Amino acid sequence: MTGEQLRELREALVMTQREFAEMVGVSYSTISNIESGARTMSLLTRAKIVQKIQLDEGLFIFVEKSQKLNRLIHNLMVQH
């Protein structure tokens, strides 16, 4: 999950970074750094998010594969 995806998820839950961090059980700076791209999401943080908001881990995998497919399609369109 990218920082942008994390921000979109948090905003969909109508939560501030501090509120989201508290709910997940990580520091505010962790969420802030992930969203800004200064840090990648650790597997532990991902697991905490999945547990707290009851997301299926498959959703993360789907989103990542979707992004790769979108980039591939974009690159193909740009080349032609």
Q: Could you describe the 3D structure shown?
A:
By secondary structure, the protein is mostly helical. Helix content is 76%, strand content 0%. It is elongated and about 45 Å long. The N and C termini lie far apart (30 Å).
Q: Brief overview, please?
A:
This protein has 80 residues and is mostly helical.
Q: Which residues form runs of ≥5 with pLDDT under 50? A: none
Q: What is the oligomer described by this structure?
A: single chain
Q: What integer value in Å does the Rg equal?
A: 14 Å
Strand content range:
under 5%
Q: Please, how many helices?
A: 5
Binned, the helix content reads over 70%
Series of secondary-structure elements, N-terminal to C-terminal: HHHHH
Structural class: mainly alpha
- Largest sheet, described in full? none
**Morphology:** elongated
N-to-C span: 30 Å
Give the rounded overall mean pLDDT: 86
Strand element count = 0
Helices and strands, with pairings:
Blueprint: H1 3-12, H2 17-24, H3 28-36, H4 43-53, H5 57-79
Main features:
80 residues; mainly alpha; 5 helices; elongated
